[in-house]
């Protein structure tokens, strides 16, 4: 390891440097600490790293820009962060900067050949830049001219030809202003990163339990008797969750892991802040591991429901919570009838699991008096995802696992404040009560027709129906599906505006005119206001709202805070006579919070409550009062048909995954340590038996072809890796494999892209030949 500040990398990822080793059997440990510190110091130096990490996830400090896992409301550790949280802070904390010299040196043609790893590691954006039609390079522009340009383009078109995308990193106050800007303009075109991840969760939970969020607290995780971790890799994506699972295990709880890949974090956790984690063997986590086929979760939970009902029939009153069901739910009779019988042969085919395995886990459920189901994107990104989550809710309702300690539903959000953004009104399908409240508060008339979600926005790009696209953070090009189609569509747009901290791919596949506006990050001090330094707020995965305030000196004096950028866009668009006082909100964030308090239920007295020690918890009827605010006022059992993924002959089911050196579309490095892969990213993990059956061998170089409704997509030059994934299934990194997802391959109801539902085949990659070689081959052929 090299400790010390390092310059931005000159070399990019070279796939020929790929190394493959045996996967790890444990997660975290001392190695994680050393890697985190090495990356942090390389970006920001020792002093800046120490100053930031000691405030990370602490009271009065700043919230991690990574995942949305909550902090304890009791005692917090000095190091209240994980390896990937430290990497996320290092990326933002960096002293590397990207300014006029960088953009003058690198043309769009050159930057388009660079990977996201290279682009992101160049450093923080330090001044606003613009590129216009026909130009080859971005060049500096003043903030005033940039906002004038935005205002001109927005005023020159209609509201519904404007799209406002949001990343989950956006704080509550910014998100509220952003959706207000869009609605004051006259559009609900507010796609966000939820559309690509947990939209299926909300689509399933709202009609069944009356809230689109989880129903558990951190204490519930600690006190649960049984936790299912389904379609989730906490060792990489939510590492602090491992500590919570360890506490559950220490109290006697049990864990069931359900995943096609045997991820290290599901098995053994070596807590680097404990003696046993440093010198001992760590804590085994999963009591049972179900290596399910991709897309087999619906069949699994239908089988579990069947087995619980069968045991209740044998021993009445021992499994099903009849009093809860009668008092609080609807649809139980139809559910009981649907789950009364089961085709075991079909279930085993769908899941890849044996009947004995499923019955063993059902026995654990039967014994448990407090069960939590946790899930993430492995469940939400398939055609039948919404039905799968509804089936999970059925099993929870069956045993009354709502509104009691240690029990409930826990969709684990993957990005800090992605849940808060939705709470603030970032949604293309707003409820009438929200629009009425906004209209009353601000004297505007909000549009009532629905807007575009992420996939619909991409389709509008393709139809040339978008003139202005504004991205508040994020990297839309690499976050969504059908990459080639998406990027071609983005380049048709009249104006793209990217409010960002670092360069990314979306800046390169820009509209005819494009602006990059550099903004403050979570770690940065925001003190250029009449009343001094300001703070913001975020909401975690368990509905706790708390403050976040950066303390570091920004790397450039030309950075603006996100609320200020939104306000100045609005002022340039609407002029001085608009009923909304944008300037007041930009100058004092308490003004924004006062508006929120009058508009959004649960935020009453926002400014006082956000200044308390631990913030406050938003109302959650299933958890708080064991009640369900659905359209019928009850929890709803549902009945779904059995459905699973059945690829054509010669194909596998491909799912996308993150590497351990990655968070969403950001690459911190080139090391997927727990899976034993480093130096390259264009890999496909395939079961060894599948390789043999398909006529390939380990390390073969192939082109990957996906098929969807008769349409093929192709991505070239991937290396096959023999790996112990579920048979019939394969895995590749996101976003490299996004190009294989057809834009119409989505989850029903939620419209979430099918990143876990691709049918793929492999063809040998033909090595490229040089012009000289090709000419020689033609001469030889002619002579023959």
Give the topology.
Layout (H helix, E strand, L loop, with lengths): L18 E2 L6 E2 L1 H24 L29 H11 L3 E2 L1 H6 L2 H4 L4 H5 L3 E2 L3 E3 L7 E2 L2 H13 L6 E5 L5 H14 L13 H11 L8 H6 L2 E5 L3 H4 L2 H11 L3 E5 L9 E3 L4 H5 L3 E2 L3 E3 L6 H18 L7 H7 E2 L1 H7 L5 H8 L3 H13 L3 E5 L1 H4 L4 H14 L9 E4 L6 H6 L8 H11 L11 H9 L5 E5 L3 H4 L3 H8 L4 E6 L4 H4 L4 E6 L17 E4 L4 E5 L13 H13 L7 H6 L1 H11 L6 H4 L6 E2 L3 H4 L10 E2 L15 E6 L4 E2 L2 E2 L3 E2 L4 E2 L4 E4 L1 H7 L6 E8 L2 E12 L6 E5 L24 E7 L6 H13 L1
Parallel strand pairs: 2-10, 3-4, 7-16, 8-9, 8-14, 9-12, 13-22, 14-15, 16-17, 17-18, 23-31, 28-30
Antiparallel strand pairs: 1-27, 5-6, 5-18, 10-11, 19-20, 20-21, 23-32, 24-25, 26-27, 28-31, 29-30, 29-32
Structure description:
Keywords: 4Fe-4S, Iron, Iron-sulfur, Metal-binding, Molybdenum, Oxidoreductase. InterPro entries: Asp_de-COase-like_dom_sf (IPR009010), MopB_CT_YdeP (IPR037951), MoPterin_dinucl-bd_dom (IPR006657), Mopterin_OxRdtase (IPR006656), Mopterin_OxRdtse_a_bac (IPR010046), Prok_molybdopt-oxidoreductase (IPR050123), YdeP_MopB (IPR041953). Residues 652-757 form the Molybdopterin dinucleotide-binding domain. Belongs to the prokaryotic molybdopterin-containing oxidoreductase family. It comes from Pseudarthrobacter polychromogenes. It is a single chain. Helices cover 36% and strands 16% of the residues. The chain has a six-stranded mixed sheet. The chain has a six-stranded mixed barrel with strand order 23-31-28-30-29-32. Strands 12-9-8-14-15 form a five-stranded parallel sheet, with helices on both faces. By secondary structure, the chain is α/β, with parallel strands linked by helices. It is globular and about 75 Å long. The model is unreliable at 769-784 (pLDDT under 50). Helix 7 (172-185) packs parallel to helix 26 (562-574), helix 13 (297-314) packs antiparallel against helix 16 and helix 22 crosses helix 24. The protein starts with 18 loop residues before the first strand and ends with a helix.
């Amino acid at each position: 390891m090299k400790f010390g500040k390092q310059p931005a990398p000159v070399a990019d990822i070279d796939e020929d440097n790929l190394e493959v080793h045996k996967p790890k059997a444990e997660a975290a440990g001392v190695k994680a600490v050393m890697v985190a510190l090495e990356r942090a110091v390389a970006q920001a130096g020792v002093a800046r790293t120490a100053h930031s990490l000691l405030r990370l996830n602490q009271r009065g400090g700043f919230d991690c820009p990574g995942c949305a896992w909550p902090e304890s409301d009791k005692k917090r550790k000095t190091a209240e962060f994980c390896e990937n949280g430290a990497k996320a802070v290092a990326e933002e904390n960096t002293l590397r900067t990207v300014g006029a010299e960088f953009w003058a040196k690198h043309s769009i043609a050159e930057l388009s050949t660079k990977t996201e790893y290279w682009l992101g590691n160049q450093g923080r954006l330090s001044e606003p830049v613009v590129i216009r039609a026909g130009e080859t390079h971005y060049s500096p522009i003043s903030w005033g001219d940039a906002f004038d340009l935005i205002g001109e383009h927005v005023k020159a078109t209609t509201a519904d030809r404007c799209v406002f995308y949001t990343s989950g990193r956006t704080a509550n106050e910014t998100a509220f202003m952003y959706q207000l800007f869009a609605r004051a303009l006259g559009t609900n075109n507010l796609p966000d990163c939820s559309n690509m991840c947990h939209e299926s969760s909300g689509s399933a939970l709202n009609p069944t339990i009356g809230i689109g969020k989880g129903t558990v607290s951190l204490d519930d995780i600690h006190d649960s008797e049984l936790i299912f971790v389904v379609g989730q890799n906490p060792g990489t994506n939510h590492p602090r969750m491992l500590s919570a699972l360890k506490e559950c295990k220490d109290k006697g709880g049990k864990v069931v892991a359900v995943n096609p890949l045997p991820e290290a974090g599901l098995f053994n956790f070596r807590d680097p802040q404990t003696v046993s984690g440093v010198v001992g063997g760590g804590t085994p986590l999963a009591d049972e591991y179900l290596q399910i086929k991709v897309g087999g979760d619906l069949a699994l939970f239908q089988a579990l429901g069947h087995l619980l009902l069968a045991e209740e029939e044998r021993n009445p009153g021992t499994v099903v919570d009849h009093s809860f069901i009668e008092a609080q739910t609807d649809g139980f009779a139809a559910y009981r009838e649907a789950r009364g019988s089961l085709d075991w042969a079909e279930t085993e085919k769908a899941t890849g699991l044996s009947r004995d395995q499923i019955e063993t886990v059902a026995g654990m459920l039967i014994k448990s008096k407090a069960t939590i189901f946790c899930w993430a994107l492995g469940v939400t990104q398939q055609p039948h995802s919404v039905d799968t989550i509804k089936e999970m809710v059925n099993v929870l309702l069956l045993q009354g696992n709502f509104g009691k300690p240690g029990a409930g539903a826990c969709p684990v959000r993957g990005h800090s404040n992605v849940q808060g953004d939705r709470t603030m009104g970032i949604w293309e399908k707003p409820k009438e009560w929200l629009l009425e409240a906004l209209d009353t508060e601000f004297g505007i008339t909000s549009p009532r027709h629905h807007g575009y979600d992420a996939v619909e926005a991409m389709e509008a790009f393709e139809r040339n129906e978008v003139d202005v696209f504004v991205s508040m953070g994020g990297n839309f090009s690499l976050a969504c599906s059908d990459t080639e189609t998406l990027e071609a569509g983005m380049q048709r747009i009249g104006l793209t505006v990217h409010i960002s901290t670092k360069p990314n791919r979306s800046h390169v596949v820009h509209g005819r005119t494009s602006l990059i506006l550099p903004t403050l990050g979570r770690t940065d001090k925001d003190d250029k206001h009449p009343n001094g330094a300001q703070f913001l707020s975020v909401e975690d995965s368990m509905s706790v709202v708390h403050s976040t305030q950066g303390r570091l000196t920004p790397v450039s004096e030309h950075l603006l805070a996100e609320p200020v950028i939104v306000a100045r866009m609005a002022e340039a668009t609407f002029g001085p006579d608009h009923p909304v006082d944008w300037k007041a909100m930009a100058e004092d964030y308490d003004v924004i919070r006062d508006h929120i308090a009058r508009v959004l239920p649960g935020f009453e007295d926002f400014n006082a409550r956000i200044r308390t020690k631990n913030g406050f918890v938003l109302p959650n009827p299933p958890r708080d009062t064991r009640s369900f605010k659905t359209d019928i006022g009850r929890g709803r059992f549902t009945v779904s048909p059995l459905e699973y993924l059945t690829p054509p002959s010669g194909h596998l089911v491909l799912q996308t995954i993150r590497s351990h050196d990655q968070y969403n579309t950001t690459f911190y490095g080139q090391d997927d340590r727990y899976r034993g892969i480093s130096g390259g990213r264009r890999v496909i993990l395939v079961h060894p038996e599948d390789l043999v059956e398909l006529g390939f061998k380990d390390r073969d170089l192939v082109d990957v072809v996906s098929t969807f409704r008769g349409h093929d997509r192709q991505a070239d030059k991937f290396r096959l890796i023999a790996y112990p994934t579920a048979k019939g299934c394969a895995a590749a990194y996101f976003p490299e494999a996004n190009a294989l997802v057809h834009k119409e391959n989505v989850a029903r109801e939620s419209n979430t892209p099918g990143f876990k539902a691709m049918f793929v085949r492999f063809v040998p990659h033909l090595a490229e030949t040089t012009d000289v070689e090709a000419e020689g081959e033609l001469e030889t052929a002619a002579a023959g």
